[in-house]
Amino acid sequence: MNSTFLDEHTAAHVAELFRSFSDTSRVRILSAIIEQESNTSTIAELLDLTESAVSHHLRWLRQMRIVQARRDGKEVYYSVIDPHIIALFQQGVNHVKEK
Question: Is the pTM above the cut of 0.85?
């Protein structure tokens, strides 16, 4: 049997993962924090988004276990540490830039 054949449960999780990349704001947020952790206000300023919008997307990304949060006093810093997510993101960017 083909080793890439997926059962329904695994397929649903993979689809959810790719859904995380289906929003341009989430993709831009990931691009902002993939190499250096940042807080919500820094991300919002960098991407010209509201802090509320950034928080909303970060909540989604945290629920999907794509980003992690680290508290430092009153500030919360977000980062991407999973090498699979980083590689997937970079492969997507490389694919688009090569076309």
Answer: yes
Residue with tokens 């831009």: 28
Q: Phi/psi zone of residue 23: left (φ > 0), alpha (ψ -120 to 50 degrees), beta?
A: beta
The secondary element (H helix, E strand) that includes residue 70 is strand 68-72
- pLDDT digits 0-9 by tens, 22-55: 999 999 999 999 989 999 999 999 999 999 999 9
Q: Which domain holds residue 41?
A: 13-98
User: In one letter, which amino acid is 53?
Assistant: A
Amino acid at 91: Q
Pick from 26, 22, 72: nearest CA to 49: 26
Provide the CATH number for the domain around residue 24.
1.10.10.10
